[in-house]
Amino acid sequence: MHQNVNKFLRFLFSGLLFLSLFPAVKAQTVLLDPPEVYLGATGGMTGSMVMFNPTVNQTMPLLGYNGGLSFRFVTESHCGLQIEANYSQRGWEEASGDYSRRADYVEFPLLTHLYWGKTNRFIFNLGPKLSYLLQETDLVNNVTTPEEQQKTPIYHPFDYGIAAGFGYNLHTRRAGVFQLETRAYYGLSNIFADTKRDYFRASNYLNISVSLGYYFQLTGKKDISE
Asked: What pLDDT sits at residue 61?
């Protein structure tokens, strides 16, 4: 069942990659003159866990930090492209409280950016995200007889999956753009080896983040009041 879901989501990942690139393809026909271009920074918290198969009991998501830079290119009303470079902390915490691990990633989301409104904009971001492991650390390790996930380092440093976020932008004429966003991520790749002879058949990330952001508007009409 889990493998069938992953196959479907990998197919969906390919479709989202195409849809995320679609606004860039349409950029040859600019409907906003000039286009709206933004450069910003975001920061916030993440809560993550790993979807293990066989199951590993986890309770609360492991909390971590995420933040980075964002480039937004809006060429037409209500639609654009957003590219990010972020640092993100993920991992898992086991229900026993005896073990937790944090993994630090650099990640590159490529998102279709949709919005509704003018001064008050509700936003929706959707698309693929590629990540690379920087390091991993045992935060808690009070285990005397370690199980497979506790003694095995992450095998696949590259991670990819689907990100979707919903949020709010407040556009001001002089002070820039303030943003609040909640985003979910589902990993389509496994962090541990997953051949038939390996212990885990699946070990993919699931996490949610909440972040605050600030954007400078570099080009485009700034007088967008209602």
From this structure: 94
